[in-house]
Design goal:
Elements: H1 2-29, H2 31-57, H3 61-88, H4 96-108, H5 114-144, H6 150-171, H7 180-202, H8 213-232
């Protein structure tokens, strides 16, 4: 199911980035504040889905389709732009090992009592989960609202988070070998295709083949993106990793 796949892949990317910070917190300050902060962040994100999902289902269908299409297209093009530039070498690839080392160094430099340090560690873990997860929440809601797919999309996101958490628990180190840019490329293409389709639906565009038109949009976006990668490779690296 495309909605579940999009939610799963988007969550997989963000969960890997959040895991890096949570692991750094646990390694430097202990696993209790790291775990509590991460759990609190996940509960807040789940609450947002539960609140916003039913609210969107009450919005008129065409307005909902137009709004969701716009949201998905904005998210998708943002992810796709970064993936294209990283594939072309214009900006550096995201390095989880460096992010881990940077966060660990910041936490080791914290002064004060043990309770103060634990509080900062908990908040660091909480903020990492919420900041990385808030985008996933909107993606889950966007691909699921209007079609009764909130629960399947949420299940896809939860499965990705559990998978990353389980691997992180076993290896206790950043998942630096995950092909993050390839995942972002795939998610960017899928979200952009969904966004264009939903925008068309909201504007009353009669898509040939109905939902099958999404596959054609995916193919078009892949071809255009690969062409942009080839063109952009002629440019020097001008932006740092983000």
């Amino acid at each position: 199911m495309p909605a579940v796949t999009a939610a799963f892949l988007a969550s997989l990317v963000e969960a890997v980035e959040a895991l890096t910070i949570v692991l750094a917190v646990g390694t430097v300050r202990g696993w209790r504040p790291a775990g509590l902060g991460a759990l609190a962040g996940l509960l807040l994100l789940a609450l947002l889905v539960l609140i916003l999902g039913p609210v969107l289902n009450a919005v008129p269908l065409h307005l909902l389709q137009f709004s969701i299409g716009t949201l998905l297209l904005l998210f998708g093009m943002r992810w796709l732009r970064k993936a294209i530039l990283r594939s072309a070498g214009v900006i550096a690839l995201h390095d989880e090992a460096k992010a881990f080392a940077r966060t660990s160094g910041e936490l080791r430099g914290v002064s004060g009592t043990k309770s103060d340090a634990d509080r900062i560690a908990l908040l660091t873990s909480f903020n990492a989960v919420v900041i990385e997860g808030i985008e996933v929440v909107f993606i889950v809601i966007a691909v699921g609202a209007g079609r009764g797919l909130i629960l399947p999309a949420s299940a896809g996101a939860a499965a990705a988070c559990l998978l990353v958490a389980a691997i992180g628990f076993v290896v206790h180190q950043p998942l630096a070998r995950v092909p993050e840019n390839l995942l972002k490329f795939a998610v960017g293409v899928m979200l952009s295709a969904f966004g264009i389709f939903w925008l068309g639906e909201g504007l009353g565009v009669p898509w040939p083949g109905e939902d099958l038109a999404i596959l054609a949009l995916v193919g078009m976006l892949v071809c255009v993106s690969l062409g942009l990668v080839a063109i952009s490779r002629k440019r020097p690296v001008v932006e740092p990793a983000q």
